[in-house]
Request: fold
Amino acid sequence: MNWRQALWIGTLIFLGCLVPGLGLAQEVLDLYPEVEPLLLSEANAQKFEQKIARAEKLWKELGEGKSMDDLAPEDRQLLNEIDETMTSYWDIIGGGCSWYCGGGPKEVKASSELKSQGSINYQAGNAHDLDYKTVWVEGVPGNGIGEYLLYEFEAMAPRINQISVVNGYVKSDKTWRQNGRVKTLKVWLKDKPFAILHLEDSRSAQHFTVPLIGEEPGGEKIDRRNWTLKFEIVEVYPGEVYEDVVISEIYFDGIDVHCFKAGTPIWMGDGSERPIETIKAGDLVWSMNDSTGELEIDTVVHTMTRGHRHMVDLIFNNGDTLTCTPDHPIKSSDGSWLSCAPAKTSFLYDLESVDSLTVGMEVGSKNGPLKVVELRVFEDPQLTYTITKLKNNRTFFARGIQVGTEPQDRSKQQFWWWREIHARK
Reply:
């Protein structure tokens, strides 16, 4: 090797250390968290259960015809404050809108697990059950240096831009102090070093912002292989009693989780079409005036993003597919309202008459009537988008189909959520 070759190789190695993606070496990020303190306790859990019990009675009364104005001021305040999607005090996210509407990890494994003690286990899945009370504990002698959690994701899982770590046994201050916690986690992306997470020694959820992880939907060069994130224990904070190191949860937030799924085109006032997730207040869209039956341009007042687990594909005779929630109202070609869940649609949208949408029916579109040729219901969770209010009218056009805006009546939504939960019991 002559001096020119040596210089060239040295330059490539140097650049590889600085520029991710050159294939020689990848820069490992040093990351520090935003910290969210946790003050969890059994006493607070009991207070939560009492509030939920009271709220359930109120939701039932509202569902039977009582109005919010009929309730005592303290009861109205309770319903405004409580999150009806949180079915347990120990829930981290609950059943509402989140990145998890798009799926989440396929599987979680661990290098070791502490042996179960009676009915309490410490398995890997506890680190991703979105529950503060259950935990993963490494199972080797000593303080767990080198042990790890491995999260596997589907190839096209929604992309991640935040990793959150609930460090230690956080269900009480006592358990948190008695057991070991992680001081430093090394993150491996697709078996390559990606980042070092520097954790505070506090009873908290610690949120780390990361560069986008995952495949871009619709990208030209999509890697369709499953991928992994590994979290390896590098340093620890010792517990006062036990050497065992505990992680209550590692969970994620991000983008691409998508009423209508992301990418659904909306007919804009200038004649163009834009993905629904880009629509914002002040945008102009085509609408239908119910009084005159004429098309007109209207102004978006409010939009909403929300999580849904039950979705339906409506396939039309022109080959188009509209993916929406079963209860979303759709205009028929004769101007009546249709949905795949007419009772719920009528209740939530304040519509006097809603017919069941079935195969063979015709819906209204900007290009004339379209016939529904197939309905496919699926359970894959999605983050969905919709327009909740226009300045003048209550319909807009999604993938060319005339659909309704989604008014937000919190008391009605709470009651319907409560009723659905109890129907499953």
